Every structure is written in C-alpha cells, then in structure tokens.
Amino acid sequence: MENNFIPIQIDFNKNKALVKRYAVKWTPTVIISDSDGNEHHRFVGYLPPEDFIAQIILGKGKVEFDLDRFEQAIQCFQEILVRYPKADAAPEAQYYLGVAKYKASHDPRELKLGLEVLQRDYPNSEWTKKAQVYALIP
Amino acid sequence: MAKQIRWETSLTAGKVRAKKEKKLILMDFYNNL
C-alpha cells in the first residue's frame, strides 16, 4: 500500500473540519485522493482483505482515469480483474476498463467489448446495466 | 512479518509527503466507539 499511497488515519471525533469537508457520516470511511486532497473514490464499512485491496486498486485506477492517465488506469483495472475477479469492485473495474480503453484509443468498439465481458462475467451487476447502452454501438 | 504501516495523522503533512514522493493519499476516517 505504501508504494502507492500516503496513508492517513483521521479520528472522526477529533477532526471535525475534515469530517465536514469530506462529508463523512459513518466509519470506517476510506477516501482515495490525489496529492492535493481531491477525492476520487470512497468506500464505507469493513471489508474482507481481498475486497479491501480491490477497492484500493480501484481507487488508484480512478485517480489515474480522472487525471487522463489512461494507460496507468487500464493497468489498475486489469489488475483487479486478474487478481480479484470475484471482488465486489470487479464489475466496476470492468466497466471503467472499457471506458479507459475507449478514452485511450477513441475506438467506441472498446465500450461494446467491455459490455460483452460484463454481460458474460457479471450479468447481474449494476455496472452491466450502466453499460447496456453501448450495445447500440455498431 | 508484515511491514508496519507508517500512518500520518495530518492531511497537511500527508499532502506534502504525497507531492514529494509522487504518491496518492488514502484517508481512513475511524471512530473509537
């Protein structure tokens, strides 16, 4: 974790300004931000180790994606799908993998390919519903 | 043995380290019930 992140523990009861700034209402809340403190991903509640790690990698991928570093984002999303395909974060990683590949290549077929993988591997996920519109891509 | 995590307790200090070390920030809001 420390290869990629500076970890900060924030006492909910002693840091009211940060609690308000990030609108934290329950603990544990984990927020992934860039080095300026801009939030890119969060999750709430205790998770088993594999789901926790997958969420952390997803957060890193979303920072890279938001900063237009699509190749780095693709690596993160692929890492989740290879190492933690059964994690709850995996369908979202698959969704963003298709989007990041599209953003990197400008080829809309990447979105449709991403949908096909979602339909095959995660048919009941909300992320499969969100990608459904890409079926219209020729 | 697992490596001990070096936790920061200040976002300001964390941001300085994150910029210097070219890393992201993981904030863990916790509550001792």
Notes on the protein architecture:
The complex is a heterodimer of chains A (138) and B (33). Chain A has 138 residues and is of the alpha+beta class. Chain A has one domain (16-136): Serine Threonine Protein Phosphatase 5, Tetratricopeptide repeat. Chain A has six helices and three strands, in the order βαββααααα. Chain A has a two-stranded antiparallel ribbon. In chain A, a hairpin with a 5-residue loop joins β2 (29-33) and β3 (39-44). In chain A, α2 (49-66) packs antiparallel against α3 (70-83), α2 packs parallel to α4 and α3 runs antiparallel to α4. The longest helix of chain A is centred in the middle third of the chain and has 18 residues, at 49-66. Chain A is elongated, with a radius of gyration of 16 Å. Chain A starts with a strand and ends in a 7-residue tail after the last helix. Chain B has one helix at 11-21; one strand at 24-30. The model of chain B has no long low-confidence stretch (mean pLDDT 90). Classes of the chains: A alpha+beta (138), B alpha+beta (33).
